[in-house]
Design brief:
Elements lengths: L27 H13 L3 H14 L6 H14 L3 H14 L6 H14 L3 H14 L6 H14 L3 H14 L6 H14 L3 H14 L6 H14 L3 H14 L5 H14 L3 H14 L5 H15 L3 H15 L5 H14 L3 H13 L7 H14 L3 H14 L3 H17 L3 H14 L6 H14 L3 H14 L6 H14 L3 H14 L6 H14 L3 H14 L4 H16 L3 H14 L6 H14 L3 H14 L5 H16 L1
Helix pairs in contact: 1-2, 2-3, 3-4, 3-5, 4-5, 5-6, 6-7, 7-8, 7-9, 8-9, 9-10, 9-11, 10-11, 11-12, 11-13, 12-13, 13-14, 13-15, 14-15, 15-16, 15-17, 16-17, 17-18, 17-19, 18-19, 19-20, 19-21, 20-21, 21-22, 22-23, 23-24, 23-25, 24-25, 25-26, 26-27, 27-28, 27-29, 28-29, 29-30, 30-31, ...
Length: 633
């Protein structure tokens, strides 16, 4: 302790001991004067001793309230906030009518704030405003109270304090900050529209205030949360234009996010990349490149996503975003069909410690990469780990769905069917259930379990009669009926396939098979109608050729050789590349032979032998036999 410069000691020699004046019976006035002298000379430790001694000796003196305030002030200036709180609380308790109490309450709030007691600080500031609403410290106290309430996450009361300050103290220097805090309080209550309304006056009325740039940025965030992306984009761009340098990195991130939501993915990527280019040292720089890679992937530019990942690795490979960028690189490789490398990258991302929320997607990506690389067993392991470790319902559904195809890829059709049924039990409300039942029908059909195939396909159609998988289910249902010998139902389903799903790749076959089913029911007239419809509606389909051949054969089977001859002639001209040409030439020859046109028949037989030597012994023998008969005639 330094020696006080102002000596107000009373010296008395008593056995060599020197005592301060208070000990010698000094008056209250002298003691307060001594304490005040120390205070004015900033010798707060001596002042504390003197004020304490005075209050101990004269607790009810007229100067006692001021002494209590000064005692608290000394502790405050020495940063002894706990002791200051005790002194100011004593002032409030013992001298509630003291005018200095207003200042004391303000100091009390400051001390409680320094101690991290936001609740007590808010109470002190509130008490000040209630006691002296017209005092010069009232707006400052309201401002500080709103900050304390905000820290307590009591956003409703924080907003109310700001609103009172704005209303009652319109000319106060604390009004801009009050608007800003009001905006934050409303933002935290998810009242984004009114939050933007609060931030706006800071920007428009007080553009020079420190809170102006942050307020403009928050306006962008408000509109973003409201999904009003064009307005958010304009707000973020205004930060860049009106407040250059201030929060520009965050504004650019906002610009990128808005472009992404507006599906302007390449614009988003450029904004994100510019964060790292212009502000390489800010915390958002690596995140900017990460989001650039995501945006390029969304734009269908996986090569550019990999370029962004390369830039990231050159500078930020040791940051917290590294594992996430590895996962994005893996997704880009998957898009580029570099499946083995994608699988390795997904595995590396998982091992590097992806954030828990992003691990399920990485396991799913790993499974997809391995599946596409035809490593079905390893893919099965990845998908199974996902379903066992994580509770992400959507990805768990997708993984369980993919496991079906892993078993199929391994040739384990029975296990694939079992997985279909397990999926149905576990995910009863899944959007994929109709597809799962259709796939079950497909695999049951391959196992030649036609009744089960029929039932599964019917279940799929009950779930979704017009959806993405309905044509597949209808197609396999029709074939199941056909295999079970129920040509009536088979014909109905084949016709439904052609009429309800005319754009389906199965539609031409549907019309063709409707004709075949009708023929099996001995209704050649209906069969011909369906086959001719197939030719007319799908002239470029292989089934149009099949239909032409089948029409000719219907006439041939009825021994209407003249009509058959004409239909075979039309088929041979219209479908010269059909795989049915070899046999069509034989039956065309037979039809000409039966009509007595032996030379034409012989030519057709010879064409069959010359053009299709690999058609098979059976057809070669028939053609040779026909030539012999023609020569005999």
């Amino acid at each position: 302790m330094t020696r006080p410069s102002r000596t107000v000691w009373t010296f008395v020699l008593l056995g060599g001991l020197v005592l301060p004046g208070a000990a010698l019976g000094a008056s209250a006035k002298d003691m307060v004067g001594s304490a005040d002298g120390f205070f004015l000379n900033r010798e707060y430790r001596f002042a504390i001793d003197e004020y304490t001694n005075f209050l101990a000796k004269f607790p009810n003196h007229a100067e006692a309230p001021r002494a209590r305030f000064q005692l608290g002030e000394c502790h405050y200036r020495l940063k002894e906030y706990g002791k200051a709180v005790t002194a100011f609380n004593a002032l409030a308790a013992k001298n509630p009518a003291e005018p200095l109490l207003v200042k004391g309450l303000y100091r009390l709030g400051e001390c409680e704030t320094k101690l991290g007691h936001a609740d007590q600080a808010a109470k002190a500031y509130g008490r000040l405003v209630r006691r002296a609403p017209k005092h010069r410290l009232a707006p400052a106290a309201l401002s500080a109270q709103s900050e304390a309430l905000y820290k307590l996450k009591n956003f409703r009361q924080a907003a109310a304090a700001c609103e009172k300050l704005i209303k009652d103290y319109r000319t106060s220097k604390y009004v801009p900050l009050a608007w800003h805090t009001l905006g934050w309080a409303r933002f935290e209550q998810r009242d984004y529209s009114r939050a933007a309304d609060a931030f706006n006056p800071v920007v428009t009325r007080h553009p020079k205030e420190p809170a102006a740039a942050p307020s403009q940025l928050k306006i962008g965030e408000c509109y973003y949360e409201l999904k009003q992306y064009p307005k958010a984009l304009a707000a973020y761009n205004k930060v860049l234009q009106s407040f250059p340098g201030a929060l520009s990195d965050e504004a650019l991130m906002g610009v990128g996010s808005c472009h992404f939501e507006l599906k302007a993915y390449e614009d988003a990527a450029r904004a994100f990349e510019s964060v790292a280019e212009k502000y390489p040292r800010v915390k958002d720089a690596p995140n900017g490149l990460l989001n650039a890679a995501k945006s390029y992937l969304a734009a269908g530019k996986p090569d550019k996503a990999i370029a962004a990942a390369d830039k990231f690795d050159a500078t930020y490979s040791k940051t917290e975003f590294a594992a996430r960028m590895t996962a994005e690189r893996a997704r880009a490789l998957l898009k580029l069909k570099r499946f083995d490398e994608a699988a390795r990258r997904f595995g590396a991302a998982i091992q590097a410690g992806l954030p828990p929320a992003e691990q399920p997607a990485a396991f799913f990506g790993l499974g997809d990469a391995l599946f596409e690389a035809k490593q079905f067993k390893e893919a099965l392991t990845a998908y199974s780990q996902l379903t066992a470790k994580f509770r992400d319902r959507k990805l768990a559904e997708n993984a369980a769905y993919s496991i079906i195809f892993c078993h199929a890829g391994l040739g384990e059709m029975t296990k694939a069917v079992a997985q279909c049924r397990s999926f149905e039990r576990t995910h009863r409300k899944s959007r994929l259930l109709a597809s799962v039942k259709q796939v079950e029908g497909e695999y049951q059909y391959r196992l030649k379990n036609y009744p089960a195939a029929r039932d599964a396909c019917m279940a799929s159609l009950r779930l979704d009669a017009k959806g993405e998988y309905a044509d597949d289910a209808t197609y396999k249902l029709a074939w199941a009926h056909r295999q079970l010998g129920d040509n009536v139902k088979a014909k109905q389903q084949f016709l439904k396939l052609a009429t309800a799903f005319p754009q389906s790749p199965f539609a031409p076959e549907g019309l063709y098979m409707a004709g075949e089913a009708a023929a099996s029911l001995d209704d050649d007239g209906e069969a011909t109608r369906h086959l001719e419809a197939c030719q007319k509606k799908y002239p470029n389909s292989p089934f149009a050729g099949n239909a032409g051949y089948r029409i000719a054969m219907l006439h041939y089977e009825k021994k209407d050789y003249r009509a058959a001859r004409q239909k075979f002639e039309a088929f041979l001209k219209t479908h010269p590349t059909s795989p049915l040409m070899a046999r069509a030439l034989v039956f065309a020859g037979e039809s000409e032979f039966q009509c007595g046109n032996y030379a034409q028949a012989q030519q057709l037989y010879q064409d069959q032998l010359r053009k299709y030597p690999a058609a098979g012994r059976e057809w070669a023998d028939v053609a040779s036999y026909g030539i012999a008969w023609c020569l005999r005639k």
